[in-house]
């Protein structure tokens, strides 16, 4: 229960703080900051393959499945407030940070260890997998996140700004599936059973993507609460 509680708490914090910051300052700074942290964390914790028990079903998937779908929620919030071009800008910024993160991980690993430090083997077992995970994440990230931004904007135009739940779910579902297929295939091919991982990751990501829909409504409520339309915000679907 503590895992579920903390998971929900992080989702609530992000769902409220990001739109509130956007409403107050008309900027996407906080969204970009949280987005970058989420991506960095997802690449590190993806090296752990976790077992998820859902009532009578069990799935195995990288632990990052708990956090990565939230990146799509952040892109949806920014898309809602500023439009697709701002999302693409945010994705470009995040991509540069991930490249730098990987380079610094390499530098840290390349340094000779201190004589008294006995965790070198454990460090390498985790970190040596990160570059491969990061490469997989880069490719999957650039394809899926941009696909999500495009689909979200197109669905919003087709529905004339109505039915937030439709654009939230039906932009996330194909994007999350594409991300899972690309990521798992590159990151774990030849190391782990990729088809079971792909299946487990898609199911869990879809479930999380659907469950975060009420939080998108919460974010929109915070974004538009007692706000007069101002330059820099779309205010498309109040």
Tell me briefly what this model is.
By secondary structure, this protein is mainly alpha-helical.
Give me some keywords for this one:
mainly alpha; 238 residues
How would you explain this protein's 3D organization?
By secondary structure, the protein is mainly alpha-helical. The protein has one domain. Helices cover 74% and strands 5% of the residues. It has nine helices and two strands, in the order ααββααααααα. The chain has a two-stranded antiparallel ribbon with strand order 1-2. A hairpin with a 2-residue loop joins strand 1 and strand 2. Helix 2 crosses helix 4, helix 3 packs antiparallel against helix 4 and helix 6 runs antiparallel to helix 7. The relative contact order is 0.16.
Q: Based on Cα principal axes, name the global outline.
A: globular
Roughly what fraction of the amino acids lie in strands? 5-15%
* Distinct helical segment count: 9
Largest sheet: 2 strands, antiparallel
Strands of the biggest beta sheet: in what spatial order?
Answer: 1-2
